[in-house]
Amino acid sequence: MAESTADNWRRADEYLADTLVGHDPALEAALAAQRAAGLPDIEVAPVSGKFLNLVARISGARRVLEIGTLGGYSTIWLARAVGEDGTVTTIEAEPANAAIARASIDAAGVGERVAIRIGRGADVLPTLEGSDPFDLVFIDADKESNTIYLDWAARLGRPGTVIVLDNIGREGEIVRDDTTDPRVIGTRDALRMLGEDPRFDATALQTVGIKGWDGVAVAVVVGM
Question: Is the pLDDT assigned to residue 2 strictly greater than 90?
C-alpha cells in the first residue's frame, strides 16, 4: 500500500488529472501567463477546475459569480460551463491580476461571457444588488472575509443557488480553537456560519493532492 505522503498525494492528483481532465492548451497557457507574471501558485488544481465546471453544468447555472479571479484559470472553467448564453462575473482586488486574467480569458475564447469587476469583494458585492440572482457562487479570495462573502452569496442568490467555498482544510488547522492565523479563523467562522445560518444547507469534503491537505465546502441556498 502506498504511504500517505505529500509526494504521493501529488502523484495521485497528477494521475487523476491526466486520466480525467487531460491537457488543454488554453488552460495551460493561462497558467503559464500567471507564472510568468509572478502571481502566487494558489489557483485551483486541474481536477478542482473540472469539478467547478461539472457542478455548474449539473446545476444548470447560467449566471455565475466568482470572488477571487487571480489569473483567470478557474474563471475559464466556469465560463465554459455556462455556455454561450451564460455569464460569469468575477471580482479581483488587484488590477494587475485582472489584466493578466483578461488576456487569458479572451485568448481562451470565452471573453464575451466574462465581466471582471476590479476592487475588494466587500466593496464590489453591494454594487451587484438589483441584478438577476446568481445561480452559482464560487468563493476563493481572502479567507478573513469569508463570512462577508457568504452573506452576499445568499443575498445575491436565490433558493437553489449553489455555493462553493474553497480552501476549507487549511492543513488540518481548522480543528484548533487556539489558532491565531486569520485565514484559519476566517475559515472556521465560515464553516460555523454554513452550519448555523438557516439560509444555507451545506457539507464539506477534505482533499489531498498537489495543493496539499485542503478541502471544499458546498452549500445550497435554502432561504433568503
Answer: no
**C-alpha grid cell, residue 80:** 465554459
- Residue 205 C-alpha cell reads as 469534503
Q: Which amino acid is at 98?
A: A
Residues 6+ apart with CB under 8 A from 45: 13, 17, 209, 210, 211
Is-contact 159 222, C-beta < 8 A? yes
Task: Determine the Cα–Cα distance for residues 92 and 75; give it in Å rounded to an integer.
Answer: 11
User: Taking the CA atoms of the chain, what radius of gyration do you get in angstroms?
Assistant: 17
Helix (H, G, I), strand (E, B) or coil at 91: strand
Please give the helix or strand (H or E) that residue 202 lies within, else none. Answer: strand 200-209
How would you class 180 by CB atoms within 10 Å of its CB: exposed for 0-12, middle for 13-18, buried for 19 or more? exposed
Structure-block grid coordinates of residue 146: 469569508
Kindly report the length of the chain. Answer: 224
DSSP 24: -
User: Per-residue pLDDT tens for 136-184?
Assistant: 999 999 999 999 999 999 999 999 999 999 999 998 899 999 999 999 9
Buried residues in 138-162 as b, exposed as e (16+ CB within 10 A)? bbbbbbbbbbbbbebbbebbeeebb
pLDDT in tens, 44-86: 999 999 999 999 999 999 999 999 999 999 999 999 999 999 9
The DSSP bridge partners found for residue 207 are 214
136 in Cβ contact with 61 (< 8 Å): yes
Number of H helices, E strands in the chain: 8, 7
